[in-house]
Design brief:
This protein has 336 residues and is of the alpha/beta class. It folds into two domains: 196 residues, NADH:ubiquinone oxidoreductase-like, 20kDa subunit (Rossmann fold, 3-Layer(aba) Sandwich), CATH 3.40.50; 119 residues, Cytochrome-c3 hydrogenase, C-terminal domain (Cytochrome-c3 Hydrogenase, Chain A, domain 2, Irregular). Helices cover 25% and strands 12% of the residues. The protein is built from ten helices and 13 strands. A hairpin with a 4-residue loop joins strand 5 and strand 6.
């Protein structure tokens, strides 16, 4: 590790801890080896550090008071501002202060601030159902700029909060962002319109989807176990969701779609309340509302009609089966 490593402090607020569990699946190298090689020193993490009680509070106080340099502040989970903006629904044990207050003080000292996961970025799951806890993201409340820190907030580096959104985040999204920060190679140009790192947010979940052949022919699944495309009937938002899940696989092998689950667009603001059951596709006059982000509606309708008319028997029958029932024809290709 370099002689002057970057200090990273990790807090967990209103969430399930799933982003930390995901992060622990980092591989080649594993999490702690990678941080050490990158020159990042983990000052404290509530689940991964030995310090607890007074020792942990001393670390937080030293950072908040400026006695300990704070290079990177990572917050996992939404900020609970209730009731009535007091933050007292989430008190930091042993301090008599809301977590909200601690985050405000620490963010003011940090050189970089990362919202790890959709809850910390936009409010996420904990902001659903009427949001009785007043859950917000660090710098967003749903799709609206604001959140706890407000639209004008900038960390000491000059960057806004970096929203590493996902429910949970892929460990690679978090670690690649941390590595870029450690190398001083991360600027505001590396953030998309929702301040998500472009290293994964400039992709769509649709890219690399194992069901793409079914999508191309608009051969759709009709029930959960079917092999076909899940956009038309099963609520899949892979053509709209910004993430590289099907090219940067989870645990080197999987993704939601590879596991047979429709994409619920968990990197997007307000994904937790889509206004319809997650496993259903809302339609108007038989046409799905959620069309691909960059395709005009008329084009999609025309393409869908043409594609369905040209669907091979193999694709059409396999789409509504739970295993391959018609295999590709063996035929001479004429290639030399």
């Amino acid at each position: 590790m370099p002689t002057n490593p970057l200090n990273l402090l990790w807090l967990q607020s209103g969430g399930c801890g799933g982003c930390t569990l995901s992060l622990l699946n980092a591989e080649q190298p594993h999490l702690f080896a990678l941080l050490e090689e990158a020159g990042i020193h983990l000052l404290w993490h509530p689940s991964l550090s030995q310090e607890s009680g007074a020792e942990a509070l001393d670390i937080l106080a030293a950072c908040a008071e400026g006695r300990e340099r704070l290079d990177i502040l990572c917050v996992e989970g939404s900020i609970m501002t209730g009731p009535h903006g007091t933050g007292r629904f989430h008190m930091l044990s042993g301090t008599g202060r809301p977590m909200m207050s601690w985050v405000l003080d620490l963010a003011a000292r940090a050189r970089q601030v990362l919202a790890v996961g959709t809850c910390a970025a936009f409010g996420g799951i904990t902001a659903g159902g009427g949001n009785p806890g007043g859950a917000v993201g660090l710098q967003y409340d749903g799709e609206h700029v604001g959140g706890l820190l407000g639209p004008q907030f900038r960390a000491a580096s000059g960057l806004p909060v970096i929203n590493v959104a996902g429910c949970p985040t892929h460990p690679g999204w978090v670690l690649d962002t941390l590595l870029a920060l450690a190398l001083r190679r991360f600027t505001e140009n590396d953030l998309d319109p929702y301040n998500r790192p472009r290293l994964y947010a400039d992709h769509l979940v649709h890219h690399g989807c194992p069901r793409n052949e079914f999508y191309e022919f608009k051969a759709s699944a009709e029930k959960a176990s079917d092999l076909g495309c899940m956009m038309e009937n099963m609520g899949c938002k892979g053509t709209q969701a910004h993430a590289d899940c099907n090219t940067r696989l989870w645990n080197g092998n999987g993704s939601c779609l590879r596991g047979g689950y429709a994409c619920v667009s968990c990197t997007e603001p307000r994904f937790e309340e889509p206004g319809h059951p997650f496993a259903e596709t809302p339609k108007v006059a038989g046409i799905p509302i959620g069309l691909p982000t960059d395709m005009p509606k008329a084009w999609f309708v025309a393409l869908a009609a043409l594609s369905k008319s040209a669907t091979p028997k193999r694709v059409r029958e396999n789409a509504v089966a739970d295993h391959t029932v018609v295999v590709p024809v063996v035929r001479k290709t004429g290639l030399k």
